[in-house]
Amino acid sequence: MDTQLRTFEVFHQSKRGEPHVHVGAVHAPDAELALMLARDQFARRLDCTSLWVVPSDQITATTPAQAEAWFEPATDKSYREAAGFPMRDIIKKAENWSK
Amino acid sequence: MNNTQNVALIARLFSLADDEFLLGHRDSEWTGHAPLLEEDIAFSNIAQDEMGHALMWYTILHERFDQPAPDRLAFWRAADQFHNATLVELPRGDWAFTIVRQFLFDAYEQARNDWLRRCGYAPIEDAARKLAREEIYHLMHSQGWVLRLGDATEESHRRMQAALDLAWPHALGLFEPPAGDEAFGAKLPEIQAAWRAAVEPRLVQATLTIPGAATAIGGGRLGAHTPHLAELLTDLQKVARLEAPEAVW
User: Are B36 and A4 a contacting pair at CB < 8 A?
Assistant: First the structure.
């Protein structure tokens, strides 16, 4: 028998206005207790303004097998990236020079 | 402050400090053994909180009433010099007993602190205000488990009811007045009524039966304890007593 109950993913906000960031998961019988336990695992030593918990099975995720088709471009598309602008190299050079 | 007031406040502070100290120790016995990893961390945290609260009360005794330093009070007193209610000295038992005891105690603290915050002695009022925040969380935590374990499975219900039957008479002993503290003593019936009003609906909601006919097991506030306290102290004080009392850690 599984004695470890369900899992809930924990999202932590360190400052008002900041995004909630995924920090880990907790075992708990339900959301209310998950929130309480999340407080002890993740909010006791970190600055915290807000916590979310979400049942792990409520998250729909890509699988590792999908990663290639979904995330790796077949051809070079770096020209589409903002980071591709020539200004980046100029700024980098200036930064390195000042070091 | 006259001498009668002094005696009363010292008795009050020892009852507050010793309850928290011994419950903190019993709670710490779960570190590494709690039923869930998350709960292990949460409960160890609560144990440390209780120890921290005990330290606050012992510090007031030391600094304002010329009592020995907190470490001396913790490690160099015998069982009959402790003024805790017997509830907190009982062995940790199973998880059901731990949760039921914690719940009954957390609710007592909340009801009691409502009065301590305006009891007329500023250092106690200040400390009670400072502790309030942690106490709210403690009660939420223990109440959360009481409500879930009360009717989760046949086994959890059976264990919770057995725990309540064992803890209840000792919990009533929390309301035994400390010797010489008439102001606190006069308030305790009112505090007990507030406590009952807080815990009874929750226990009923958790499908548990309150042992209505039980009578209070007292004596703890006056230094009369179960044999469990002496056993606990032997364990707790063992390391400190390897050294001379003056040793600094």
Answer: yes
- Min mean pLDDT across B105-114, B135-144, B239-248 is at B239-248
Q: Are B129 and B122 in contact (CB under 8 A)?
A: no
> Does any domain span residue A1?
no
Using an 8 Å Cβ cutoff, are A39 and B39 in contact?
no
Q: Which residue of A has its CA nearest to B39?
A: A37
How far apart are alpha carbons B174 and B104 in whole angstroms? Answer: 10
Q: What is the DSSP letter of A43?
A: S
Query: How far, in Å, CA of B47 to CA of B29, rounded?
Result: 9
CATH 3.30.70.3040 correct for B3-242: no
Helices (H), chain A: 31-42, 67-71, 87-98
B148: nearest CB among A3, A27, A29: A29
**Proportion of chain B above pLDDT 70, given as a percent:** 99
Please determine, for residue A78, whether its predicted confidence score (pLDDT) is greater than 80: no
Q: Rounded distance, CA A25 to CA A37, Å?
A: 10
How many folded domains does chain A comprise? Answer: 1
pLDDT reported for residue A2: 61
Mean pLDDT of chain B: 95
Q: What is the CATH number of the domain that holds A29?
A: 3.10.20.520
The pLDDT assigned to B178 comes to: 96
